[in-house]
Structure formats: structure tokens, C-alpha cells
Amino acid sequence: MKKENTMTTFPKGFLWGGATAANQLEGGFDQAGKGLSVADAMPGGKQRMSVLASNDFNWEIDDKKFIYPNHRGIEHYERFEEDIKLFAEMGFKCYRFSIAWTRIFPRGDEKTPNEAGLAFYEKIIDTCLEYGIEPVITISHYEMPLVLAKEYGGWKNRQLIAFYENYASVVLNRFYKKVKYCMTFNEINSAFHFPALSQGMVKSSGAGDFKNIAQAWHNQFVASAKAVKIGHELNPELKIGCMIIYATTYSIDSDPVNQAATMVQNQEFNYYCADVQVRGQYPAYTERMLRNHGTSFDELDITPNDLDLLNTYPVDYVGFSYYMSSAVNVTTEQPDEIAGNLLGGVRNPFLKASEWGWQIDPEGLRIALNELYNRYQKPVFVVENGLGAKDEVVGSMIQDDYRINYLREHIEAMAEAIQDGVDLMGYTPWGCIDLVSASTGEMSKRYGFIYVDLDDDGNGTLDRTPKKSFYWYKKVIESNGDIL
């Protein structure tokens, strides 16, 4: 049902746009000096996550056994000008994309950057600016150099702090005059459930030991603070944020046991990484959380200088992805479980789910925005949100009303949150152009406003075609959210 007083709410200058990730759309995995990343070693198909979670996976590429859809993506590396032109046609005010670390430092541990990689992203940035689109850059988005995962063991190794600092310094020094918004790590808290993507660690390299995950997080927190320091010294007005997955979490009932379990899940997953990066210090519940997972704060390699850096250079805003909510039930022996964005949960009987089992909860986005803003009192930015669905071409256009309805309801929830007093910077729906799914490596799980003719087996013309949602979103942006 349409809520009252949700019109004419979005502030002037609101950053309407869309979001992508280099490893999911660029392709060109071996072009112009680019090195291999962890994404280049992730196979495609629904078995992707189980393969990465297996005991014997060690980042080896087996072309005979698996396909690697990230290698080709949607060939954005060659067609970025065509794609950005389509974004401009929709009226994007901003475009969130990531820089592939391995285009700048192919191994990750070099001293000197690859100029061809920097030149490529300069072209993307310049193309955006020509159309009046603000670039929003994610410095590391699920694609750390494969060498750093295989030879250094991933982010549990403190040496990666210096490698990232060098990388971030090169990127920020090159682009700080053209870019106003950055984020340091994509969905950094995803490692709680799946450290392969963001920390480059699998079971064969220590992902089964929570101490390694906690140490990797600490090293990333320090690296993030160093990036903030570099950025603010270059330009105090440069806004550098963190980025987390946020899944609004409800207790399945009023049983105090489930309520307490919900509190703990919120602390561990929704808040821990943001607490450190936004507040600049470890939260009070840290020690108990670590002990609950078999380690302790004293076991981690943390220096006084690290803690000073965290405190001195917190992030400027909170970016987050929101796709679904989750319920908690620890009092039922075998609760009905559902799938999710790298995490599952208990089925909420009041919600419907997508084709992939993700529960759809726009009201949960309003709650998330209020919880994050009131907790941190810093601007928030919805940098991912959307509906993964199988699209079918009917006639001359994909009639994706299901996507329009999903996005409309979430935009209405954002409007409500703004009226609640939330300082919301912008909205960049995920996969504004169809791209390779991070969780399954599929093309058939589509989010975009723009259809890309490519199937799960790599067949298709790769032609770009606007969907019905393309023209709907254009009107949303033109009206600054008044026409939904």
C-alpha cells in the first residue's frame, strides 16, 4: 500500500545512479598488463560457493573442469563508453564502480603501478564527468590479486596493509581531483560467513579458524584508515566511506532467548565492522564475540599505532548493500531456513521471496537506514539494492514490472527514512546493467535496467537493450523521486 507523505522528499543533489563491480562486468582479464585476481579463479555455476568452501580448494584455475565467467564478463572493458552513455540516458547523477586492483598492480606487491590500468580508469572517470555523472569508486571489490591470496595467505598477513596502502595511494593521488566519493572495501563484513571473496582466504589457507578472519579484518581496518588519511591529506573534502552488507534482523518471536540471539547476530554481522571503521575503536562486545568463536583479542596482532590510526581516521559515511532481511530462531530445533546474500536465515512468514529465495522486505530498508544513521550519526548511502530475476524478452522489450515494483517499494521506504530524519546521500541499485552474479557466476540471475544478450554458457551477442525498468527509473530520477 502506498504510504502517505512520501512525495517530494528526496533532497536536491540526491545521488541517483547505479552500481557495478569490475570483476563482474569488465572481462578483459588478461588485457593491458592486468594480473589474475581471486575473482578470476572463481568458477561459474550454482556450485561456485560450495567449491570455494571445500577443504581442498587452493585458488588453482582448472579450465577443463570449470568455466570462469568473470574472464569475459559483459565485455565492459571494450564497451564502457556505450554503457555509460546508456546510464546518462537514464539520467544517472552518479555511477558506483570498482577499480580492479590487478589492473593497477598485477601481482599486488609491486612498487610501480601499471600505467595502462590507470589510463583505463581515467577514461571511465572522464566519460562519466562528460555526462555530468559523479564517479563513486570502490577501491577493493571482491577481486584482490591472486598472488596475495596464494603466496601471502590473504588478508590475515599484515604485509597486505602496506600493499593496499601503496595501491590506494596511487589511485587516490591519480584521481582525487576528479572523484569526490570513494569506499575502501566492498561488503567487508561478508567474511563472517564467507572470507574467500573479501579476504582471499579459503579453508586450505586458514579460513576455518576465526582468529584468521578477525586478524584479516583488523588488517583491513588499518588499511582503510590509511586510505582515509591519504585521501583527506590530498583533499579534506574527499568523502571516503566503508561498505557493509546490512540485513535487518528480527527475532522470530518475543521469547527473550531469541531476542538476545538477535542482538548478538546484529552485533557480529551488521555492526562489528562498521563500529570499528565509523567510530574508530573496537566495540565493547568485541572480546565476548571473539571468545564465542574460539579466539580472543589478545591473540590478535594489534599495535598501539594501529589503534591510534583507527581512532584518528574513521570513515566519512556508511555505504551498505540491502537486499533482504533475516529472522532469528534459536529455540526451535529445526527452523525453516532460507537463502540470502552470502548469509541465510530463518524464514519470516510475513514476507515473500525472490526466485533465489531472498526474502523481500522494503520496510526493512527503512529500519536499516534508521538503525545505521542513529547509531553512527554519519551520512548513509544505499550503494546496492535490487531484485535478481530471470528476464524474458516478450515482443520488443523485457516487461520487468516485478523489478519496478521491488525498487518502487524500496524507494518509498527510503523516502520514509528521510522523513524520519535520516541523512541519506544517494541510491545506486545493483547491477544497473546485467552482469555476472557474484554468488553463482550466472548471467540468468539479472538485476539490470539494461539487458545484455549473454547466457550462462557464454552464448549471445552481448547487445545491450533497455528494459521497461530503464524508462521507469529515468522518470524517477527526472522527478527526483516524486514519480514512482
TrEMBL record:
Name recorded for this polypeptide: 6-phospho-beta-glucosidase
Organism annotation: Lactococcus fujiensis JCM 16395
GO molecular function (one): beta-glucosidase activity
Active site positions, chain numbering: E384 (nucleophile)
GO biological process, one term: carbohydrate catabolic process
Protein family (similarity comment): Belongs to the glycosyl hydrolase 1 family.
Alphabetized UniProt keyword annotations: Glycosidase, Hydrolase
Top-rank taxon, per record: Bacteria
PROSITE patterns per the UniProt record, alphabetical: GLYCOSYL_HYDROL_F1_1, GLYCOSYL_HYDROL_F1_2
PANTHER family: 6-PHOSPHO-BETA-GLUCOSIDASE ASCB-RELATED, GLYCOSYL HYDROLASE
GO-annotated cellular components: cytosol
